[in-house]
Amino acid sequence: MHTHDFPKVSSSAEEYLLTLYRLETSGERAGSSQLAKMFGVKAPSVTGMLRRLSERGWVRYQRYRPPELTESGRRVAVQLIRRHRLLETFLVRFLDYSWDEVHGEVQLL
Predict the structure, then answer these.
(1) Strand 59-60 relative to strand 68-69, pairing
(2) What DSSP string describes the chain?
(3) pLDDT score for 84
(4) What's the pTM?
(5) What is the rounded CA–CA span in Å between residue 57 and residue 105?
């Protein structure tokens, strides 16, 4: 996937994809109710987002089972992580931010 091919991802979808990626890479899984607690939202909001992510082909979602990233969803999550790291590096090298400042700044973009 080239940068110009990168799909448009809302900030909330980005948050879900990154969270699911981090959970998967750490060997953990979380169902809708655990995700709702993590995001500070109600379970129906999580279900709605998981359905939207499923419609885009990024998540396999079935009721009463923890969601899983598809290969496509994993690629998008990795691309998001790369983009964040590039932005963090730019802020540190060219705009004199410190490393402890950049994570919060990049999360807001």
Answers:
(1) antiparallel
(2) --GGGPPP--HHHHHHHHHHHHHHHTT----HHHHHHHHTS-HHHHHHHHHHHHHTTSEE--TTS--EE-HHHHHHHHHHHHHHHHHHHHHHHHH---HHHHHHHHHT-
(3) 85
(4) 0.81
(5) 29
